[in-house]
């Protein structure tokens, strides 16, 4: 049996540093239920933090030179950096930091840019979030390190501020131009609730998970490829469309400001690919607006249909799906007890999210796994997930 990542982090800490960790922390992954590729268009997203997480065992380091020693237990690798080496993305030995080490280093960089104390730390982290699967493993790493440095630094930031600093680390240090959704969900998660974030005002609230409904994640086992370039290209197309449309719609700042009617009237001005990308966003913002009252009123069948529409739009207009995600969503949508199924996260591989009637969950999972395997020859992982609280220290 493999060790739980919390135990793996503590155990590895004791072995590597010869003492008990002073603290343990965790930051959850997230699943996005609706509002895909709209966070960087000022839209609305409905994610939840889930019960898969990155765990950290940590203690202040006894280093006058400010060396932080970070161990990635899942890769059996270690990185050492200092306040001087961090801005150049190198370790204390001046060699470039490994890709995984750029997440903790990026968080240290973003925190100190803001003027917060980032004490030297000894830490081991481990995770049960599959990487490259659309569940935000990287945001959970960022948020767990933010929590650890907060604990040692003696300062305290509201969770949304932590999320913004994590996003800054990813945008400016790691170099992925992501929106705010993932870090937000990891920082602000609430047990047994969905989250609703207005990505323009950053106001947020929770929404109920409809009664008798389970959130089921189905991992295609296909891992993302070329995500950063595909993602950044899509983001650029959205910005281009705003520039063109603003000639007729002065005052728009983002695609969120464009109604479906205005879009239909003006879309002929856009190059064909840009038009498809922008149409997805404009319609997805409209879908989320329609979906919010449905969730509040427990109208799960209608909400599920909107999820299915979202999948079709990500497949045909935004073109971020892959055949395996389409197969997984299509099988699920035809099974009894399934209200809605769609790819979740950035796409290009990874997982689908399914809302399923609780009493039908076991049959649903077995049939979905069997049929997917028959059709693709790939073994999926399917699990029921529980909405959970956000990043925090646990002892
Ligand atoms: C990734 C990004 C998020 C968001 C989603 C797509 O997970 O990190 O900011 O844009 O893709 O909705």
Describe the model:
The structure is a single chain. This protein has 395 residues and is of the alpha+beta class. It is 41% helix and 21% strand. It has 11 helices and 12 strands. The strands form 2 sheets. Strands 1, 2, 3, 4, 5, 6, 7 and 12 form an 8-stranded mixed beta sheet that branches. The chain is globular. Alpha-D-galactopyranose binds at residues 32, 36-37, 39-40, 136, 178-179, 181-182, 345-346. The site of alpha-D-galactopyranose (GLA) has 12 residues, from α5.
Question: Which helices and strands, and how do they pair?
Answer:
Elements: H1 5-17, E1 23-34, E2 44-60, E3 68-72, E4 77-81, H2 102-113, E5 121-127, H3 137-153, H4 159-174, H5 181-188, E6 193-198, E7 204-208, E8 213-219, H6 227-245, H7 260-266, H8 272-296, H9 300-316, H10 323-333, E9 338-343, E10 351-357, H11 361-376, E11 381-385, E12 392-393
Parallel strand pairs: 3-5
Antiparallel strand pairs: 1-2, 1-12, 2-5, 2-6, 3-4, 6-7, 8-10, 8-11, 9-10
The protein binds alpha-D-galactopyranose.
Describe the global form.
Answer: globular
What structural class do the secondary elements suggest? Answer: alpha+beta
Bound molecules: alpha-D-galactopyranose
The overall pLDDT, averaged over residues, is 96
Major sheet description: 8 strands, mixed
Order of helices and strands: HEEEEHEHHHEEEHHHHHEEHEE
Count of beta strands: 12
In short:
The chain is of the alpha+beta class and 395 residues long. The longest helix has 25 residues.
Structural features:
395 residues, alpha+beta, 41% helix, binds alpha-D-galactopyranose
């Amino acid at each position: 049996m493999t060790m739980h990542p919390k135990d793996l982090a503590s155990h590895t800490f004791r072995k590597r540093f010869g003492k008990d960790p002073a603290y343990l922390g965790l930051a959850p992954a997230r699943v996005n239920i609706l509002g895909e590729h709209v966070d960087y268009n000022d839209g609305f997203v409905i994610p939840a933090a889930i019960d898969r997480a990155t765990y950290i065992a940590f203690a202040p380091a006894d280093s006058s030179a400010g060396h932080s020693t970070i161990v990635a237990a899942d890769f059996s690798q270690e990185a050492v950096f200092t306040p001087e080496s961090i801005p150049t993305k190198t370790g204390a030995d001046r060699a470039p930091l490994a890709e995984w080490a750029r997440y903790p280093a990026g968080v240290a960089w973003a925190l100190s840019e803001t003027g917060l104390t980032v004490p030297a730390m000894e830490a081991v982290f481990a995770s049960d979030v599959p990487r490259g699967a659309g569940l935000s493993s990287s945001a959970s790493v960022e948020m767990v390190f933010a929590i650890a440095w907060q604990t040692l630094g003696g300062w305290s930031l509201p969770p949304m501020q932590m999320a913004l600093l994590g996003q800054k680390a990813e945008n400016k240090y790691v170099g992925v131009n992501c929106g705010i959704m993932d870090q937000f969900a990891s920082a602000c998660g609430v047990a047994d609730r969905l989250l609703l974030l207005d990505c323009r005002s950053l106001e947020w609230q929770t929404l109920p998970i409809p009664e008798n409904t389970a959130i089921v994640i189905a991992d295609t086992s296909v891992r993302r490829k070329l995500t950063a370039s595909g993602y950044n290209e899509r983001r650029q197309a959205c910005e281009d469309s705003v520039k063109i449309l603003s000639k007729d719609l002065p005052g728009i700042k983002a695609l969120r400001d464009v109604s479906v009617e205005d879009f239909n009237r003006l879309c002929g001005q856009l190059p064909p690919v840009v038009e498809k990308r922008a149409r997805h966003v404009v319609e997805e913002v409209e879908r989320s607006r329609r979906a919010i009252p449905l969730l509040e009123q427990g109208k799960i069948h209608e909400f599920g249909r909107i999820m299915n529409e979202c999948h079709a739009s990500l497949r045909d207009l935004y073109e971020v799906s892959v055949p395996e995600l389409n197969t997984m969503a299509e099988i699920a949508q035809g099974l009894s007890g399934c209200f809605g199924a769609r790819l979740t996260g950035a796409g290009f591989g990874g997982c689908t999210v399914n809302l399923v009637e609780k009493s039908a969950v076991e049959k649903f999972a077995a049939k979905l796994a069997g049929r997917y395997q028959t059709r693709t020859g790939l073994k999926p992982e399917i699990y029921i997930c529980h909405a959970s609280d956000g990043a925090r220290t646990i002892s």
